[in-house]
Amino acid sequence: MSDIKYTSDHEWMKIEGNTAWIGITTYARHALGDLVYLELPENGRSLKKGDNFAVVESVKAASEIYTPVSGKIVAVNDALSDNLEDLKEDLDKGWIIKIEMSDAAEAQGLMDATSYKKYTESLS
Length: 124
Description:
The protein has helices at residues 26-32, 113-123; strands at residues 4-6, 11-16, 19-24, 35-39, 46-47, 52-58, 62-66, 71-76, 97-101. The protein has a single domain, classed as CATH 2.40.50.100. It has a six-stranded antiparallel beta sheet with strand order 1-2-3-9-8-5. The protein has a three-stranded antiparallel beta sheet with strand order 4-6-7, with no helix packed on it. The chain has two helices and nine strands. The two termini are 22 Å apart. By secondary structure, the protein is an alpha+beta fold.
């Protein structure tokens, strides 16, 4: 997972070329508890860095999910709607959207796995 980047809002992002897979971290998933609903965005939607693009609801709360980079959504993982347990830090099943980045440099300020681990430990 060393090539995955993390945000302070608990999203993860993996970049391949000009495409980024975005999901929520295991930390966020555990903090939310039992998930009950995921509101997914429309494919083709343009996003600016920091825009919310989805909402995940649990028995505890509803949380917005934000994009760490600007770009256009090129794929939405619709399978998650029926299988919320797959919403985890798993590139094969747990990604929410794939985005074609308009400015890959926006990802430079994100945390690596070591920094994110230290960050989450500081929240405890």
